[in-house]
Amino acid sequence: MEITMETQEIERILKQALNLDEVYVQGENAHYGVIVVSEEIAKLSRLKQQQTIYAPLMDHFSSGEIHALTIKTFSPEKWKLERMLNVVN
Fold first, then answer.
1. Confidence of residue 84 (pLDDT cuts 50, 70, 90)
2. What domain of life does the UniProt record list for this protein's source (predicted)?
3. CA angle, 78 then 60 then 87, to 5°
4. In terms of pLDDT, which residue wins out, 82 or 33?
5. Is pLDDT of 15 > 80?
6. pTM, whole model, 2 decimals?
């Protein structure tokens, strides 16, 4: 039997660990997509963004609750524009 996580639980962990304006998680079967809205994180290199977002979730990767995580990061300004253009679902 596969152990799975609720998307709300991932959101809670990330909100608690990081200074985020907004966070959205979608997915199932241990494969998740995360949208993070944060000026701070958006300024980092792509590698640093991934490390920052993966860090609070490492135990869940180890346990197999999360197998894959796709990350999209936006500054609040870019997120507003993205939503206006309706590019992100």
1. confident
2. Bacteria
3. 20
4. 33
5. yes
6. 0.87
Classify residue 6 as exposed, middle or buried by CB count within 10 Å of its CB (0-12, 13-18, 19+): exposed
Two structure tokens written together for 33 = 């997509």
- Sequence-distant (≥ 6) Cβ neighbours of residue 28 within 8 angstroms: 4
Amino acid letter, 6:
E
> What percentage of residues in the chain have a pLDDT greater than 70?
91
Complete DSSP assignment for 15-67: HHHS--SEEEEEEETTEEEEEEE-HHHHTS-HHHHHHHHHGGGHHHHHTTS-S
Q: What is the DSSP-derived secondary structure letter of residue 79?
A: H
* CA pair distance 65, 85, nearest whole angstrom: 33
